[in-house]
Amino acid sequence: MSEPHEPVNASRGGLLLVFDLDGVLVDTQDAENGGLAYVGELMGLTLDKERRDELFSGKKMQECLDLMAELTGTPPPADAMPIARAKCEELIGDRLEPIDGVAYALARLSALPGVAGMCVASNSPLDLIERRLAKAGILHHFGGRLFSAYDVDAWKPDPKLFLWAAERCGGAVEDCLVIEDSPVGVDAGLDAGMRVLQYTADPALGAHRAGAEVFRSMRDLPGLVAATVARRAVPTAAHIFAASAALTSGGIR
Q: CA-CA distance, 125 to 114, in Å (whole number)?
């Protein structure tokens, strides 16, 4: 289990960066889909890579097992989930690399003024989140601020996971910036009322939903976050008007 998380100063108005795990920080989605497809084979279902990615990516494992049962008319094995996870770990192997550019981005974001802190909010179980971040050598960036859908009993696209992570970190919704890659994650972030940056290296893929800002390289992330911080620091017309009114009412002419 993860140690108690370090507090962040999000209550002071700094940005809280909320990262997804698979497909954003580490690339294990293909292995996870492969583990599920292996269980599918035991149920008499053969899926090519394109089809399994379409059916499984970003979803809760039980939902994927239920979907395969629906497609085959055959219930999954009683130990389907442990089988899928064991096969996934076998496919990952002993070494797990972070997404290209992630180590660079996290190191710079950790020292970026205006960033209150960083956390991970994932549909995966907590022990798996921690193990994969540790394998990839990036666990230390998050100060124990790891949040699992299993602990709040709500899976993306339900926004509850992101809202819970923000609450635990002391961040207001308007101070959160979500970094996601999947349609369900983008939906969860936007429905939580948070800004969303959608990562995809595929130049042919656009925003999953209006309101998400697409970027193609993790090396671009520090610049995008810095730009968000800068925009937040610029007073809006409403702020200027309110300040002017306050000065006037206070007797300053």
A: 30
**Ranges of the chain whose pLDDT falls below 70:** 1-13, 235-253
d(CA 198, CA 221): 10
Detail the DSSP E strand segments found in the chain: 15-19, 115-122, 146-148, 176-180, 195-199, 212-215
Contact yes or no for 67/54 (Cβ under 8 A): no
- 10 Å Cβ neighbour count for 2? 18
Q: Is 20 a catalytic residue?
A: yes
Structure tokens at 162: 């992101």
Catalytic annotation, pick one of 20, 22, 27, 175: 20
Decide: residue 173, CB within 10 A, 0-12 exposed, 13-18 middle, 19+ buried: middle
| pTM given for the model | 0.79
* The two structure tokens encoding residue 191: 């429905």
Question: What phi, psi does 73 have (nearest 5°)?
Answer: 75, 15
